[in-house]
Amino acid sequence: MNYASETALGVATIRAFGVSDKFFSNYLKLVDRDAKVFLSSNAALEWLVLRTEALQNLTLFTSAIFLVIFPNSYIAPGLVGLSLSYAFTLTGTQVFLSRWYSSLANYIVSVERIKQYMNITPEPPAVIPDNRPPASWPQKGRIELVELKVRDYKFDES
User: Which tops the pLDDT comparison, 143 or 43?
Assistant: First the structure.
């Protein structure tokens, strides 16, 4: 976003030098880089959730088999249903908490960046009162160009 806003502020200069294609391609590279990070983060989260669900389903299936195999005299059928219902609820809760914790970890990185940017030393002021030229400056209202050389500058397209 910062690149886009700076480009918008300097659009007249960019067009004057005829390098708008370079800026547009650079913008697309930045968008692709951001999308790669977003895709990697989501892929890692889905990998974690898939593995968590697989482990939970294996555990739930194994415990359900044991609960069904036992005779009715050992465990009441109502308790079997209740324990399986609670197990499904806990499975869903753990998947939700895994997603929430991963998102929280990503947001904490943003907070750390904001904290880092808050501690950057500010730039000096544009006008320093003790270092101003005298009020009578310039004494003559003309500009003298001595050995001025103007060249056409070409930007590197790579």
Answer: 43
The gap between the terminal CA atoms of the chain, to the nearest Å, is 22
Note the pTM of the prediction, 2 decimals. 0.55
Sign of CA dihedral 104, 110, 113, 117: negative
10 phi, psi to nearest 5 deg? -105, 25
Task: Give φ, ψ of 138 to 5 degrees.
Answer: -75, 150
Evaluated on CA atoms 25, 31, 34, 40, the torsion sign reads negative
User: Per-domain residue ranges for the chain?
Assistant: 2-120
Give, in degrees to the nearest 5, the angle at Cα 87 between 83 and 90: 135
pLDDT tens column, 83-134: 888 888 988 898 899 889 988 888 888 888 888 888 888 888 888 888 888 8
